[in-house]
Amino acid sequence: MSDVVKDFDTEGLIDYLGRKNLKLDKDDIKILCKEKISGLTFLKLTKDDFRSIGLALGPATVLAEFIEVFKEINDDDKALDHCMGDIILKLSNVKTMTDANKILYTAPKIYL
After folding, report:
1. d(Cα 38, Cα 5) in Å, to the nearest integer?
2. Confidence grade of residue 72 (pLDDT, cut at 50, 70, 90)
3. What are the residue ranges spanned by the domains of the chain?
4. Mean pLDDT, residues 55-61 taken together
5. Which end of the chain has fewer CB atoms < 10 Å from its terminal CB, N or C?
6. 22 with 64: CB under 8 angstroms?
7. What is the dihedral angle through the alpha carbons of 97, 103, 109, 110, rounded to the nearest 10 degrees?
8. Which of 18, 14, 69 is nearest to 39 (CA)?
């Protein structure tokens, strides 16, 4: 998961954070842009770091806690790998069933 975030440039990170509905306002976004915070940099920041660049306590706390989630998710976690494999398998089965349904419903109808 952190591999995805670390590859973001500043604009990509801002877009990503916006989709996460962290309640960042325009001033918060301006600060992150001004400081040119990329994904890799973002993952290394603490609440104190966010405060030192001018973020208010609320957004600084929210962002620091959001980063902690990434630290808790180990990309080498075998249980996570197993779950992801299971999800991918189920999604491929759904696609197969969807394709089969399309064939059934689009096949020419033969009336006797």
Report:
1. 9
2. confident
3. 2-72
4. 96
5. C
6. no
7. -90
8. 14
CATH number given to 2-72: 1.10.150.50
How far is it, in rounded angstroms, from Cα 36 to Cα 90? 40
Rg of the chain on CA atoms, in Å? 22
Is the pLDDT reported for residue 89 higher than 90? no
Degrees, nearest 5: CA angle 7-12-13:
80
Distance, CA of 91 to CA of 52 (rounded, Å):
44
Model confidence pLDDT, tens digit, residues 21-54: 899 999 999 999 999 999 999 999 999 999 999 9
